[in-house]
Amino acid sequence: MMLIITILLIMFGIIWYLEPKWASQESRDKATTTITSNTKEAYSKSKGWLGQFRLPFRKDKDEVAAQFKQWLGQSDLAHRSQLYNQLSVDASEFAAWVDGLSDAELNKFVADLSTICRTQDFELTWLVDPKTPDNLKRAVEDAVILHGLAAWKARDIQPLLAYKAWQAAPNKPENRAFAQKLYNKLAEAGLVTTPSNLVLATDKERQEHVALTIDTAAAEKEATFLALVQEVVNELEIEKNEVKAPETAASAVDPSTPKAAEIAA
Questions:
Q1: Rg of the chain (C-alpha set)
Q2: 132 close to 145: Cβ distance less than 8 angstroms
Q3: Domain-by-domain residue ranges, the chain?
Q4: Model's pTM, two decimal places?
Q5: 141 vs 138: CA distance, rounded Å
Q6: Residues 158, 230: contact at Cβ < 8 Å?
Q7: pLDDT digits (tens, 9 = 90+) for 207-238
Q8: Which residues have a Cβ under 8 Å from the Cβ of 233 and sit 6 or more positions away?
């Protein structure tokens, strides 16, 4: 449709340029009116056509909003005492966690928190801005604390995120490493019995066995399973940081020194 609009505009330019200068103003105006009307009509159709593709997305958003509102009405927020009673402890742990972050981790967390604040139409920097009115500063502080606690609390979802990432792409190297570690954890916990003939199985058969075992444990022993996934996530994070540390130190001493991965390659 946009192509039609473009062609009509080009035609208008050609007619205006080639029409003899002696042609009457009336004929030129008539040609202009015709082209303009056709262009408006084409644009109107184009707008309606594009609108057909927006409707489903609006519908999806409306469904999510309706589902959230329904969940909110059923959640009995005023009586979630466990959450509210835990806030003071969570606040202390949150502050200690932030204090223990490296410079890079702190910068990333603050950048993410700043983005969250902007989505709510205020800036994180208002916390320390002397121009922030005193009667509003407490509201800003409370909002930042609650958003920060929410972001920190979301770390509890890490086991589910790791499990979903593995499900979505089980053959990615990092996800295969995750699955192998998790399988070993499940075996140590007595949730897995490794078949004796697995040693002779093909790689595909071993991966299928691992996948089936993990999914079965997730369905039958949910709490234990998620706790073991959290252990795996923590161990992989430690390993990743240990790999980064020597490389950073080596780069600081001599940037030309090849990394271990480069030597192995």
A1: 31
A2: no
A3: 2-74, 84-154, 169-264
A4: 0.53
A5: 5
A6: yes
A7: 888 899 899 988 898 889 989 999 998 888 88
A8: 158, 159, 162, 178
